[in-house]
Amino acid sequence: MSQYFSFDLQAQDGRARAGLFRTPHGDLQTPVFAPVGTQATVKSLTPSHLDEVGASLVLANTYHLYLRPGDDLIAEVGGLHEFMQWPRPILTDSGGFQVFSLGGINQIDDEGVTFKSHVDGSTHRLTPEKSIAIQENLGADIIMAFDECAEPYDRVYNQRAMQRTHAWAERCLNAKTRHDQALFGIVQGGIFPDLRAESARFIASLDFPGNAIGGLSVGETKEAMHAILEVVDPLLPEDKPRYLMGVGTPEDLINGVMRGVDIFDCVLPTRLARHKAAFTSRGRVNVSKAENARSTRPIDEACDCYTCSNFSRAYLRHLIAAKEMLASTLLSIHNIYALIRIAKEMREAIFEGQFSAYAARVLHELA
Ligand SMILES: [Zn+2]
């Protein structure tokens, strides 16, 4: 791929893939789940905690860091790895998704997007070239093309947004100057199989070192998401990593890998932690429920994370009731570990040719 990046497909079982993606800040063993550090921090966790849960890739949000503290400032103090003291691979998104979901949009045209900051109301303009310049200042290993995210069920809008996303993908490639960053293209097209196929073919033709599937997990049904993955999977190059953006329940990870996905990210594990909820191998639980008041059991008996190895549901419920910060930390450790563990177990199952059996068993237990 280049002197900085390579992707080796190490094993395949059905459509499920195990690979090794080399980046300047270390190797990613895929399938891999990336926790999200929107503001250059995975909420309530230190880099040591991330180490302990086995995180290898962290996502940071371009939109937020551009507005505050500013990408120039981050470049000046040594880049994102140095700034947040995370020495392993980082991925930044393009800012596109947040502009469309958080920014007050003033204008979208073929050149770019003008929006109002959700922080202070100031007006900004993001273009493909600007997004790449910001991501080059931030210095992540994997950076993303600037795309337009449309409401998934509006066909006319999705067609227009897809065409714009394609034109912007070419402009991102032309704007890129750093060789130590891998720029991934993004497939759009809403829930429409023909648009998705057209988008996958076009994005694949641009020969990005990796390809992403955007615009999913934004309100469409699980069936629609799975159908789109089945359309896109055979059209993307086999020898490059595939990244399903913003997707991350245990079920989603398994269903994604089953359909050829290698990389995932999601805010869900830390967001659930702040809402007192936890993943378990038998589905989601709410730790603050009265039934946990005297429970000496861990969140999940099948989990060997730091939280489950040491703390009872009774203690966690007390921390939540007392509004102690440690509650978020301990629940986040568990929730992120749960997803990273599933990714690791899937990888092992793929090497052993046991992926289908593994997926069927875990999905059955979660249901
Ligand atoms: Zn645990």
Compute the separation of the termini in Å: 40 Å
What is the number of strand segments? 16
Main β sheet profile: 8 strands, parallel
Mean pLDDT: 96
Q: What's the tally of helices?
A: 15
Small molecules bound: zinc ion
Largest sheet, spatial ordering of strands: 4-14-13-12-11-10-6-5
Which segments are poorly predicted (pLDDT under 50) over 5 or more consecutive residues?
Answer: none
> Roughly how much helix do the residues carry, as a percent range?
40-55%
In a few lines, what is going on in this structure?
The protein is of the alpha/beta class. Helix content is 42%, strand content 19%. The longest helix is centred in the C-terminal third of the chain and has 27 residues, at 325-351.
